[in-house]
Write a structure and sequence with these properties.
The protein has three helices and four strands. It is an alpha+beta fold and 122 residues long. The protein has one domain. The two termini are 27 Å apart.
Length: 122
């Protein structure tokens, strides 16, 4: 795998869900839906690109919009990247790795549970 996109900045809510999943997250339902939708659009291979020891890739206060949910609220930002093969592009796959043309069972269940279809259909 190689880095196919880097320099993504996530807000604190999107960072928490990207790293730990949504289970147990104390996030308002509307924000959680924006976060889940944004992460799903970015694909299954989103990885953190930060160093907790040195602080590289962490901004304690930034006005850069979140690359996942789109929030423009200033605050914490963490840097992320997307890994993939040469033929992969961000958004080519669903949250669980199935190609967008073949929605996987887990994605269908998530869509039903949250009441939205986060996979763009052409």
């Amino acid at each position: 795998m190689k880095i196919i996109r880097d320099g993504l900045w996530f807000c604190s809510d999107c960072t928490m869900v990207a790293c730990n999943g949504a289970h147990g997250a104390d996030i308002e339902p509307e924000q959680l839906q924006r976060t889940e939708t944004g992460l799903a659009k970015l694909g299954a291979n989103v990885v953190s690109d930060l160093d907790g020891e040195t602080g590289d890739g962490l901004e304690t206060f930034s006005s850069v919009p979140c690359d996942s949910c789109g929030s423009h609220l200033a605050g914490y930002r963490a840097r992320f990247a997307i890994l993939g093969d040469e033929e992969d592009e961000p958004g080519d796959r669903c949250l669980f790795g199935a190609s967008l043309g073949n929605q996987c069972e887990q994605t269908a269940e998530l869509s039903e549970a949250f009441g939205f279809d986060h996979l763009p259909r052409e």
